[in-house]
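Data availability (excerpt). The following record was deposited with the supplementary files.
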Amino acid sequence: MFKNQLLCFLFLISHSLFALQTIEKAVVKESNKVKRYFFKDKIVAIEKWYGDDKKLDSLKTYYTSGELNEAFYYSKGYYQGKSYKYNRFGEKLTTWEFNKGKLINRTDHKIEFNKKTEDKVKKAYSRLKELNLKLKDNPNDFKSIFQRASIRNYLGNNTLALNDYKKIESKVLKLSKTKKVPEKMLGSIYDHLANIYQGYEMNNHCIHYKLKALKASPKESRLYHNLGSYLVTIKSYRLGISYLNKAIEMVPNHSFANWILAVAYTDLEDYDKAMTTVNIAFKNEASLYKRGSGTAERDLRTLRGLLYHKLGDSEKGIADLEEALNINKNNSFAYRNLGTIYYDLGKYNLACQNLQKANELGYEKIHDRDDLQAYLELSCENAAIIENKKEALSEAILDTEPIQLSKLSDRPFIYPNPTKAEVKIKNLPFKDYQYLIFDYTGKLVFQGESKKTPINISQLPSGVYILKVIKNDLSETFRVIKE
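Predicted structure:
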């Protein structure tokens, strides 16, 4: 009996090492002295080294392309000596000097900006200098710390911005024990923390703080939208839809929320719902351009173009996509959608041209998708057959069958999600299984065995968790939010 329990335990632990890989490149402990966090393409995002006293010795952050971004050094867990920030070309931008955690001096060797940002960037550096001087005399000035955190974040000094926001969080929580703290203030702090973790692609840390922002300020529709949009972006579609719908309950014609809902429904192939929501977003299209970045490839026309085709009006779909390319000639998603429409219509030469353009623009890498190559290869092969005017051209020669990509709607998913107590799993290829539950940091917090019964997580605190289910050599991993 004991032997069986031991084998079961070892089995679970061996699988736990890989439990977060399909959701997030989480912390990897190479030893007791180093922890590394990774971007989704396995490039190191953050590297922390610890001394024999188990306190931080050094911390380095990296750009998504792999170049060193920041390097900080510590003594007894406090910033100490000189630390540095570099640009992507290895040029030193800033040197900080610390003594026992206190900033003694900051030297900016090079200030980077373009024509549009020059004034704003220079003002940010000037204001940062003022705030650093002010905080030397009054290190507990809450307002100044918050302003400095925002400026540091804007300038890409994310390690120090994170430190400031954590300091503010601690002060606000302490203050809240005796005084009422404005909801929006605490919500804003957590939202900023989430955004920094988002930049490192630490998805679960980001979601953790977005949830804390919602809990702190539950009346702000933008926080529901921000969380929902982020979840859709990292392909947690059903979770994202839940929070986007909450934003729309508060603001029915929320243009951004309806836009991202259309993205989610399109990927889940619920084209009628996607068309409904994209048309609501179109009603307030101007606000998307006014308040958005204006460079999103999967814009309303790129979305609606594919939806028209899927719902039977390819002519309108092509018109929308051509207009999307008029707006942004380098829109790889529009080229991809246009190419797939032409493939479905049997216009292989046009399909090949558009799909090649999408490929050249890096569609699959930009959008972390794998739905281009099959269309590209068959379109170009069929176009070549027609071009060469081979004899006995027929349906048998041309591959004209619709390309069958795996459907997201057919993949296993958990429900209800978010949940207050139990979760069930739909489309799972096995019934009885063992399961592991990890918190947002990757710590194993619960494990068990399910025999055709729901998994009860009512005993866990509210937050984001990773659920991994295991059956022999098969496994599936899910993200679940406990309310």
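Summary of structural features: Residues 322 and 334 are 8 Å apart (CA to CA).
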